């Protein structure tokens, strides 16, 4: 998701902020809560005042887009969960929900 936001900022403003520690810290601080919000809602807005050189950044992201951006990570997690269930010799029919934290 971070790379998507960086690309969006660069596309909109023609500026690369990857090497600016202050801007990257602001960006990481803003997108962490957005990830949590997307677990409860279908859309959220990331808003950062004066992200870089006085430029404010606003971006909407949907849960669908978030899932598209992170599908490879989700698939890795799913493989790990399946391996754990198999190793524990559990019947998948008795498992209704799995909550991943972290």
Describe this structure in words.
The chain is α+β, with helices and mostly antiparallel strands. Helix content is 53%, strand content 18%. It contains 4 helices and 2 strands. It has helices at residues 2-13, 21-38, 63-69, 71-87; strands at 43-52, 55-62. A two-stranded antiparallel ribbon has the order 1-2. It is elongated. The two termini are 16 Å apart. The model has no long low-confidence stretch (mean pLDDT 92).
Spatial extent as radius of gyration: 17 Å
H/I helix tally: 4
Distance N terminus to C terminus?
16 Å
Strand order of the largest sheet: 1-2
Give the uncertain stretches in residue-range form: none
What is the average per-residue confidence, as pLDDT, rounded to a whole number? 92
Structural class estimated from helices and strands: alpha+beta
Oligomeric form of this entry? single chain
Major sheet characteristics:
2 strands, antiparallel
> Can you tell me the overall shape?
elongated
Task: Give, in order, the helices and strands.
Answer: HHEEHH
Beta-strand fraction estimate: 15-25%
Give the helix proportion (percent range): 40-55%
SS elements, strand count: 2
Concise structural overview:
This protein is of the alpha+beta class and 102 residues long. 53% of the residues lie in helices and 18% in strands.
Question: Secondary-structure blueprint of this entry?
Answer:
Layout lengths: L1 H12 L7 H18 L4 E10 L2 E8 H7 L1 H17 L15
Antiparallel strand pairs: 1-2
Characteristics:
102 residues; alpha+beta; two-stranded antiparallel ribbon; 4 helices; 2 strands; 53% helix; 18% strand
């Amino acid at each position: 998701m971070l790379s998507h936001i960086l690309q969006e900022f660069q596309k909109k403003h023609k500026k690369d902020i990857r090497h600016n520690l202050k801007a990257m810290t602001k960006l990481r601080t803003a997108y962490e809560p957005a990830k949590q919000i997307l677990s409860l809602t279908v859309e959220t807005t990331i808003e950062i005042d004066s992200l870089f050189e006085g430029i404010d950044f606003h971006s909407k992201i949907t849960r669908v887009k978030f899932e598209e951006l992170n599908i490879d990570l989700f698939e890795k997690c799913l493989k790990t969960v399946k391996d754990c269930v198999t190793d524990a010799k559990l019947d998948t029919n008795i498992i209704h929900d799995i909550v991943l934290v972290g």
